Amino acid sequence: MQERLQKIIAHAGVSSRREAEAMIREGRVTLNGRVVDELGTRADAKRDHIKVDGKLITQAEPHRYILLYKPKEVMTTVEDPQGRRTVIDLVRGIRERIYPVGRLDFHSEGLVLLTNDGELAFKVSHPTHGSVKTYSVKVRGVPEERLVDKLRRGITIDGKRTLPCDIERMHTTGKRDDEGNSWFEVKLREGRTQQIRKMFQAVGHPVSKLRRVAIGPISDPKLTPGVWRELTKQEVKMLETMKEPKKTVKARPVSRKKPASAAKRPTAASRPKSRPTAASRPKSRPAAARSASARTETRSSTRRTPSPRPATPRPKTAAGKSSGSKKPAVRRSGARPSRSSARR
């Protein structure tokens, strides 16, 4: 089965996949006697002859997973040109070619993973796979919370901005919280050279002690400087099944003061009701009818209503009846007499 050349090299335990890609670009890898410098080249590990620096790659070695507590003043490399002690010098009795995953600077101490599994090494070292490294950090003085929050969001170091990280204040060495030096727990998802030291140096509180206490879900407080052990199958499985973390952005605190524009905004109670729909609107009248109705309303509004006249009491007769109950008939001039009057 054909696979990418850098993947075959990583499976053989020669290096990590990232280092294998660099070897291919530099022209240090040959495939069937021909130099390969393209990363997309595929090969079959069982049929093709693959060499790195002139050495033939054999079948994949059994994978080894070593957890080491690196002491101070030890290099996290396979070889050091200056002859300083490396993490490989501390691991004795391992026949397979293992190499450290990631880096831990010369003056720091803590956990380091060594393996010949290129796939796992790439997953643990690359920040997109969720491998969080946890550190206990001691800094000089007591940084203000605004400075710590600035480091959490990320700052620019060497022309590149750091990823957001988790920083928790643990305790101080003084009698009060604002005295002495401070201890922090820092969780990073990237592994830039001396990143934590440069971060706190940038805010005026240099690091005096730095110790890595966990690699992803793997930790061991019983290990002492210079001591190592094999990872269990369960721990290896935990590293293999790490997933990409969800991106969570911490919201900035909102000021309690309301802006001037917010005070002018109408509330829900004062807002006008929604406009009626087409079905609920009354049918419009023609323009002529609307104008006539308007004129009628104007006239009626200008008319004066007559004031009511006061009622005058009528005089009563002797019999107790009003004199005005029955008026005598008055004959108008020029009117014809009725038939009853003519007969009389």
Core attributes:
single chain; alpha+beta; Structural Genomics Hypothetical 15.5 Kd Protein In mrcA-pckA Intergenic Region, Chain A; Pseudouridine synthase
Write the layout of secondary structure elements.
Elements: E1 2-4, H1 5-11, H2 17-25, E2 29-31, E3 34-36, E4 42-44, E5 50-52, E6 55-56, E7 65-70, H3 87-90, E8 99-101, E9 109-115, H4 118-125, E10 133-139, H5 145-153, E11 156-157, E12 160-161, E13 166-172, E14 182-188, H6 195-202, E15 207-215, E16 228-230, H7 233-240, H8 260-264, H9 287-302, H10 339-343
Parallel strand pairs: 9-15
Antiparallel strand pairs: 1-4, 2-3, 2-5, 5-6, 7-9, 7-16, 8-9, 10-14, 10-15, 11-12, 13-14
Helix pairs in contact: 1-2
Oligomer: single chain
SSE-based structural type: alpha+beta
Question: Could you describe the largest sheet, including whether it forms a barrel?
Answer: 8 strands, mixed
The coarse overall form would be globular
The string of secondary-structure elements, in order, is: EHHEEEEEEHEEHEHEEEEHEEHHHH
CATH C-level class of the domain at 65-240: Alpha Beta
Number of helices: 10
CATH architectural arrangement of the domain at 65-240: 2-Layer Sandwich
